[in-house]
Amino acid sequence: xxxxxxxxxxxxxxxxxxxxxxxxxxxxxxxxxxxxxxxxxxxxxxxxxxxxxxxxxxxxxxxxxxxxxxxxxxxxxxxxxxxxxxxxxxxxxxxxxxxxxxxxxxxxxxxxxxxxxxxxxxxxxxxxxxxxxxxxxxxxxxxxxxxxxxxxxxxxxxxxxxxxxxxxxxxxxxxxxxxxxxxxxxxxxxxxxxxxxxxxxxxxxxxxxxxxxxxxxxxxxxxxxxxxxxxxxxxxxxxxxxxxxxxxxxxxxxxxxxxxxxxxxxxxxxxxxxxxxxxxxxxxxxxxxxxxxxxxxxxxxxxxxxxxxxxxxxxxxxxxxxxxxxxxxxxxxxxxxxxx
Length: 340
Prior knowledge:
Number of strands: 18
Number of helices: 10
Strand order of the largest sheet: 11-13-12-16-17-18
CATH class of the largest domain: Alpha Beta
CATH topology of the largest domain: Dna Topoisomerase Vi A Subunit, Chain: A, domain 2
C-alpha cells in the first residue's frame, strides 16, 4: 500500500464521522455519500480497505464503491488536489484503476429485544458472571454478543407470554443469541451458570432450525458443525446445531452445502447413545465426521480448551481425525468398542 494513500486518508479523517481504524489496512466511518443511517447516529458502514497496492472505499448502506481518490475529491477537493500532486511527484501508479467489489456485507448485530440486558463485555471485570465466562476461556471478542439474563423465565415470558407458567426457581442464565445471516435474532439459548437443570434451554422466536453462527459463517469456505454454541466459538467458520439433525440438508446464505464442504464434529461421548445415533446417521448421509482419538478424555471442545489445548492444536486434531465412507465406519466401530 502506498504511504501516500494512508497519509491522505488520515489527513481527511477529521472530516469523516466516527472514523476509526479497525485493523491492518481497514478503516471505518459513516458514509459521506449517503449519510449512513438516519435513525442511528452510531451506525458507521463506510469502509476503506486495501486491494493489492491501493486503497478503495465501499459503503454497506448505499452500496457505493469507489477509489480513495474519488472519496477524497467528494469530501474535500483541496486535499484531493494535494493527493494527486504528491502521487504524481513520487511516481506512484495504481494497479487497479477500476476496483472490483466482491466481499461480503458485514453483519450489524442489533440488540432489539435484548436491549435491556447487559452483554458480558459490559459487566465489570469482577462480576461473577463475567468471571465464569473468562474461566471457561471463551474468546473475549465474543463477549459483546453474550448476555447476562438475571431472570430467564421472566424475560422469556415478556416475549412469549406464559411460556413459563410458573416463575418458581427462576434464576440467572447466560443468554446466547441465535442470529440469521442478516444479524436478526430468531432464537436464543439460556445456559446455566451452575448446576441448574436443564443445563440448556433454547427458545425459538421464529420457525427456523436452531442453528447458531449463521451471522458469522462463510458459505465459500469449509464449514464445521458442532453441537454447542460455545464450542463453535473456538473453531474457524463453524456453526452449532442445537438439538437439530446433523444429517439434514444444510443451506447457508442461499447455497446448499455439499457433503464434501462440511465436517461434523460431535462431542467426545462414546457412551452417549444419542450421540452414537447421530454419528451413525451422519455417516449414512455420506458426510465427513470427526472421531476423536482414544487418548482424548474431554467431553467437548470447550473442556479441551480449559484443559490447556490451544485453538490451533484442536484444529489440527480435528483435521487429523476426520473420516468418511468405509474408513469412517471402521474407525467408528473401533471407537465405540474401545470406549465401551
